[in-house]
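Teaching soon. Got one?

===
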Amino acid sequence: MATLSMIQAINQAMLQEMERDPSVVLLGEDVGHEGGVFRATDGLQAKFGKERVIDTPLAEENIIATSVGMAAAGLRPIAEIQFSGFLHLAFDHLVNHAARMYWRTRGRWQMPIVVRTPAQGGIRALEHHSESMETFFTHTPGLKCVMPSNPYDAKGLLVASIRDGNPVIFLEPTRLYRSAKGEVPEGLYEVPLGVAKVVQEGRHATVISYGGPMKACIDASAKAREKGIECEVIDLRSLSPLDETNEVAKSVMKTGRLVVVHEAPRTLGIASEIMARVNEKAFTSLQAPMKRVTGFDVQFPLARFEDYFVPDSFRVLSAIEETAGY
């Protein structure tokens, strides 16, 4: 085991998969000579050459359209979009081509594309650099969507995404690139898509999140424990497919209470779907109304107001105390 940052774990996953499978190629703005805007692809062009690590023009639509053609021709492209806010420019090819190709060809063509992009706030970035766009993609049949919260999961989920036959949107919480560090196996391994992880066991309330807000949830659960409230904390990891193991429902059946946290705007966010599924599968176990702690239904604010938007441990703890004291 080595202690790696999230960005190092992501780099290692791509390097080892490219060594294992010659059909894996990288493309994107500055991914070659510069190693990517956050250095996620650092050193890969020097090792694998310009034909497998391809610097593209500043044209997100072209990057994804090219990836669709590569995948149809038998390659496994990993496309980097420098910030998730720029994915809007490639939305047509993602939704109308990549996501539909398997269905349109009745299974003859797969679309093994991974679209990597930094997401969420916390870095005091400019406009279009801090979006949480997961709802767009989880609502699109044919697309898978993943967001890790730690280096171990980042590597394993990326390996699983590269090997998947479907297009995968791989959202990387920007503020965790270097702040999140942990032990990562040196060899290749997969973290399966569609499987949530119980990060911490508890018996009084279930707290669910993914990506950047996971730290706020863990910090809030530690403060809640000091007040006698034991929280079960679950990391979704995969947003589409979403928890096919029913880990969430099983937890709520045990605790009777639920708090869901995400950074994306509130309306029609992942929290809404989680709460609907709990209502269907564990309603009779609920001992209090379900709570959600989310971003707000506004554009992501500029730097001076960012802390008011991003869910923090204080907001999460308040929700835990409210549902536990109902």
In short: The longest strand covers residues 114-119.
